[in-house]
Amino acid sequence: MLVLEAFIKCIITYTLLLPFTSADVSTASFEEKLNLKLLPKDYVLFSFNFKLKSDNIISSSNALFEFKRHNGFSRSIEPLLTKNNVKNLYIKFTKGHWDSQKWGKLPNNGWSSGGSGVEIWAMMEASNKDEVIKNWNILMSEVSGLFCSSVNFINSEKITFINDIQSYYDVDLLDHIPITNEDNELFFLRGSLANEAVCTENLSPFLRILPTNGKTGLSSLINGNRLFDSYWNSMSIDINTVCTDESNCYLDTEIDINFVVNIPQALARKERPTPKPVPAEELQCDPSKKLTDWECFPLLSEKTYSFLLSDIFGTYINDSNRFNKEQVSSISITGIDDEHWSTGIKVIPRGVEDKEEIERLGLLGTSNHVYELKEHQKTNYDIYIGTTDNTKVALDESEYPPIYVTRSLTGDSQDKGVMRVAFTNPSQQREITIRYFETLPWFIRLYVSSLKINVKPYKNLNIPKFSGDAKDVILKTDVKPSIIRSAPLHMQHTLRIPKNSVVMMTFDFEKPLLNYEEYPPDSNHGFEVEAAVVVVIDESYEEKALNGEFKGHLKDHNYIMRTSTLLLTLATPDFSMPYNVITITSTLMAFSFGLIFNLLTKRVVTFEDSKKLVTERPLVRLLKGLKLKK
Amino acid sequence: MASFYTNGLFIFIYITTRYFLFPHLLKMFNAEQMMLQYIDVLFNTPFISYKTLKECILFTQFKNNGSNLNQMPLYVSLFVNIPEQLHFYMFALIDMLTLLYFLKLDIPHCVSTSLKTKFWIYLFNPLIFLNLIMRTQFVFTQFFIIMALYYCQNYKLNKYHVYKASISIAIATYLDIYNIGLALICLNFFKKFNQRKQSTICFITALTLLYFISYRINSNFIDNVILSCVLFKEQYPNIGLWWYFFTEMFQEYRNFFKFVFNGYSYIFVIPVFLRFKHYPLQGSVILFTWITMFKPYPTVGELGFILTAFVSWFDMNIIENKLIMGLLVMHSLVLLPVFYHLWITVGSGNSNFFYAMTLVYVIGLALVLLGMIKSLLYNEYISINCDDKNHEEDKSDKKLNLVCV
């Protein structure tokens, strides 16, 4: 009895003391940032960036009970990873079209957005591929529950194993990944669902991962109405397992939410939620066109305007980041010059709720357009942006994308077609090396052997044109053909695009029929084919990274982008007549069998003999006998 | 002497037009794009098309398994070593050899087809020619079948001919598993038990060897070619009965019906073997026709072979309803590509139109088959019941009125 009592006491003291003993080793942290980038033609890109670090995820072995402390880090993520032996997990929800001709490079060099739909990358530890696929399927159903998305449809029919990891992943980080079993390998997988509808139910899990829960700090601005009413939006979460030593590992998580909004439209939406014509007194007419009392061609956009973030989002920024006292939340505005643009912050103290009173509050401006939310009390913030000439937004030379890619399906029939990919290198100074990463579903029977490639100049300039064999453009090809109903076609071409030229690749393909139950309910709509991934490689960097002389981050050197998704129409059978087909075919088969069986089993005789033979048949004789008896 | 030169000139013209001029003209006018794509569905299946062959050749470099590599490894490795420009001439060579063996084949005495007629029949068969232009694998299969028949027929000339025959049959079976029944029918050629034994053993050894070598080259061929063909995994519309049936068939019954259909196409192997003991040449054509009707991936190229054999090896005088037969076949051959085009490209018809035409095609084939059997049975009656003396008189006097009971 005494022993037991002592034991219980021991446990209680242990439990009570534990938080204090391990409090100082917490590595958990949370940072948040918002960047507004003004784009030409009145577009603005909002980039929310949240960085989370978890506590040590390896529980010390001498602990009697496993106490996991989360310090604001979402509790749902860690079991998701450890249970399925996942080391890194990148999930990207994207919707819309990023117009790189107008808007330049993708935010964050393209690393925080995916192809239209859902895209998932995972680094997994396993002994073989079957085990990976098994774990992946479990992971997908869990992710699908967590993010309310149908990613559980990404099964072995859709996933690809990535070979050239160095183009997609910082190779030096591999050393920091803990491997539980020495015999196991790391596999890097990718799967995606094309044109999966991304909407509010996918956003709220993202916000729930944040310690602020989308209620305070910068995340209080984000709401589904605004985010999904944009021209292009992407939400991504990158989870990396990083170990400093064997017993110290943490989850490094980065959440990026980017979207592009057209300012006049967003403001008009606030003023006139239902579409109504602009009142006459507010109408700005184009003086260069016909202008009478009755006719007015409206100006495409106003030259001068000013707005507050609350006009666009409908709310103020509620409070600042309270989790990290060193790293305060910051808002920066880029892509503007001081001459024509002005910005400012409005600090709305606690208790001030009257609209007019808020309007009267003064603005504070900084010269570098960076604002920090410093007040450590309940305060609302608002950001002001105004311009005298909205055309004075220009992209830097370095902000233009190094490549444009278009991919399309051609061909007029439903049984075959041609896939055409065109890579454009607009640069007149240097040639670029790219990796073209393609995953196609098994029901595209692509003939890799039918590849035709040609090189054309992009613009007619005086620089020398590409001369040489177009086949030399391909440096390396890696193809894994599809397997019916179990694996997609995966091909990766490494290409060198000469300066100022367009490289066009075409592939022939055929389309099969599917079984009737495999067609979607709206079978004539077609099937979505996921986007291809194109990485522009910094070759010198990659060489260094492979040799272990690591310099800088991969994400600063390689530019990644996705093509648009494709819509593939398949030939459809007539779904209404399965019974007809089955019965008619069977009838025909029985009919021809009968005819031939009949001939094979019968004797050939002359017509005269046949009469005699017929009368001697047992059945005929029996009938005759019956007749006689009567 | 003069006729020798005319013949030489004639053969020269034949070779240049068939193998050089026509293909070149077709290339010049971009036939692939303009015409051949419309009849693609008739001649090509994934298992015999030249496109697949090219894909297989490419993937000999990569060593990756893919389910669309539907060609036999040995067939592929034959073409790997030939530069791509000369591929067509390989097919042309085989086609020429086919013609040679076809001409050398002894025709049954009841059929009076001259050498010249046979030559014209083969030459002007558009189906065989288009098959050659499309460079399908059936050019090879057809060659090995005809070669096997030739060696079977002339097994007495040379003791090695038995082996040659069995090996050709084994290769034909290797290229298309559905030809396996022909091996049994060909045993009827050999009169002695010893030769039959030799032939059987040789056939089995050759086939095993072929499969073994293929397995060493690429072990995935079992899945990708044989099982994929037999279990109808590549669902492309073709002129057979399987594609629509299995697209519409309910999931639970699919495997059962695949089993039934396969059994169905082999159902007449033993009956034909037993019934036409004395007519193995015709018997093999009859079996081949039956299997073509009900195999998963039939093509019109096979019809070309069947029609050529039908016209030259069977007594056409006995066969009735030749007009209906011909019209049915023509009707389906014309309307098959038209309805396919309407369904797939134009979109103004649906799959039922094409399906209906495949039914007509099969009925046409069934009538041809019926004609073959009837002609053979009547011939048999005449050769058994009418002595040589009477035979001449009978023929001249009146036509025998025969019936089956």
From TrEMBL, chain A:
User: Where is coiled-coil annotated?
Assistant: none
Q: Does the keyword Membrane apply?
A: yes
Determine the domain of life of the protein's source: Eukaryota
- Gene Ontology biological process terms, A to Z: attachment of GPI anchor to protein
Keyword annotations for this protein? Membrane, Signal, Transmembrane, Transmembrane helix
Q: Which Pfam families match?
A: Gpi16 (PF04113)
Its cellular-component GO annotations read: GPI-anchor transamidase complex
Name assigned to this protein: Related to GPI transamidase component GPI16
Automatic annotation (TrEMBL), chain B:
Please give the start and end residues of each transmembrane region: 7-26, 86-107, 119-151, 163-187, 256-276, 296-316, 323-346, 352-373
Which UniProt keywords are given for this protein, alphabetically ordered? Endoplasmic reticulum, GPI-anchor biosynthesis, Membrane, Transmembrane, Transmembrane helix
Output one GO BP term: attachment of GPI anchor to protein
**Bilayer disposition of the protein:** Multi-pass membrane protein
The places in or outside the cell where this protein is found are:
Endoplasmic reticulum membrane
Q: Please name the Pfam families in this protein's record.
A: PIG-U
Which InterPro entries does this chain map to? PIG-U
What pathway or pathways are given for this protein in its record? Glycolipid biosynthesis; glycosylphosphatidylinositol-anchor biosynthesis
The GO cellular component terms are: GPI-anchor transamidase complex
Q: Which PANTHER family match?
A: GPI TRANSAMIDASE COMPONENT PIG-U, PHOSPHATIDYLINOSITOL GLYCAN ANCHOR BIOSYNTHESIS CLASS U PROTEIN
The family line of this record is: Belongs to the PIGU family.
Q: What is this protein called?
A: GPI transamidase component GAB1
Origin species, per record, is Hanseniaspora guilliermondii
